[in-house]
Design a protein that fits this description.
The protein has 12 helices and 8 strands. By secondary structure, it is an alpha/beta fold. Strand 4, helix 7 and strand 5 form a beta-alpha-beta unit. The longest helix has 17 residues.
Length: 272
């Protein structure tokens, strides 16, 4: 964590935009429970995202589509209890903001009021421009999300890299400018060519947070369970594994089971 980040007792939208201006990289990770959130906050992460990835790493689902608004509120509320410094952002799940603006504003308001999140994140380009304008006008900060948008997986039919063709790349740049102009303070760029992500980053006021989008973004995000090596079946090239917790946990479980079976646990010192 850099010295400038240490100067801030709380990370806010203003701090995030200043970090972009100063060239200080932004670190974002996910959390869905209080204990993980506490460790992330103490480590100095800048943004904690309660992502709809809770579907994959917590609920055991294949896609993020089934996650509900109430589930996001619940997990964000739990995470909020442990977060003192990092900015807390909550994902808006599928169909919580797509029906109409009135319903979307009400749902985003619920998230902030009931969970303690400081901003919401939503997927999509120019189609959510008016919603972003309205949300920011009433004081709800918004983080955008372009490129591979997991809530649209049934439309795309694949998790392959997006915007590799000239037409789609041009549209993504235009969408990024529209979202930034509408008031998003940050924009996740997922699984797009690094050169394109860097071009977007230098073209907009909002901070860019990359995931599989190269080093040219203003910051990076990973799913915490992935970077800790807890998901042994998921090995995309953009995930760097910083630990092997699945192996460590499995070994611990086996040792505990062995000690119980062999009557080595509990000992006299571990008994009352």
């Amino acid at each position: 964590m850099s010295a400038s980040a240490l100067d801030h007792k709380r990370i806010t939208t203003k701090v995030i935009l200043q970090m972009k201006k100063d060239g200080e990289k932004i670190a974002m990770l996910t959390a869905y429970d209080a204990m993980t959130a506490k460790l992330l906050d103490e480590a100095g992460v800048d943004i904690i995202l309660v992502g709809d990835s809770v579907a994959n790493v917590f609920q055991g689902l294949e896609s993020t589509v089934p996650v509900t608004l109430d589930e996001i509120i619940y997990h964000t509320k739990v995470v909020r209890r442990s977060v003192k410094r990092a900015m807390l952002v909550a994902d808006m799940p599928f169909m919580s903001y797509q029906v109409n603006t009135e319903e979307a504003v009400r749902n985003c308001g619920r998230v902030l009021k009931e969970s303690g999140a400081e901003a919401v994140k939503m997927e999509g380009g120019r189609r959510i421009k008016d919603l972003i304008i309205q949300l920011t006008e009433i004081g709800i900060p918004v983080m955008g999300h372009l490129g591979l948008t997991p809530q649209s997986i049934y439309k795309f039919g694949t998790y392959e890299v997006r915007a590799t063709e000239k037409g789609e790349a041009k549209e993504l740049i235009e969408d990024a400018k529209i979202l930034s102009g509408a008031g998003v303070f940050a924009l996740v760029l997922e699984k797009i060519p690094a050169a394109l992500a860097e071009k977007v980053t230098t073209s907009i006021h909002a901070a860019t947070i990359g995931i599989g989008a190269g080093a040219g973004c203003d910051g990076q995000v990973l799913v915490t369970n992935d970077m800790l090596g807890m998901n042994e079946q998921f090995h995309p090239r953009f995930v760097r594994t910083y630990a092997k917790l699945a192996e460590t946990m499995r070994d611990g479980f086996k040792e505990y089971i062995k000690d119980v079976k062999e009557k080595k646990f509990p000992s006299a010192d571990e008994s009352y």
